[in-house]
Amino acid sequence: MINVYNTMTNRKEEFKPVKPGEVSIYCCGVTPYNHPHIGNARPFVTWDVIRRYFAKKGYKVHYVQNFTDVDDKIIRTANEEGVTWKDISDRYIKAYFEVMDKLNVRRADVYPRVSETIPEIIDMVKTLVDKGYAYPVENGDVFYSVEKFTPYGRLSGRRLEDMQAGARIDIDTRKHHPMDFALWKSAKPGEPAWDSPWGKGRPGWHIECSAMSLKYLGKTFDMHGGGSDLIFPHHENEIAQSQACLGDTHAFAHYWMHNGFITIHNEKMSKSKNNFFTVKDILQEYPGEVVRFFILQTHYRSPLDFSDERLKEAQTSLQRLATTHTYAEELAKKAGTADTAKEIAVKAAECRKKFDEAMDDDFNTALAISEMFSLSKEINKYYADVTTGGTAFDAADFADVKAAYDYMASVIGIFEQSESAADDGLTDKLMELILSVRQDARKSKNWAIADKIRDDLKALGIVIEDTPNGARWKKA
Ligand SMILES: [Zn+2]
Question: pLDDT tens, 428-439?
Answer without folding.
Answer: 778 889 999 998
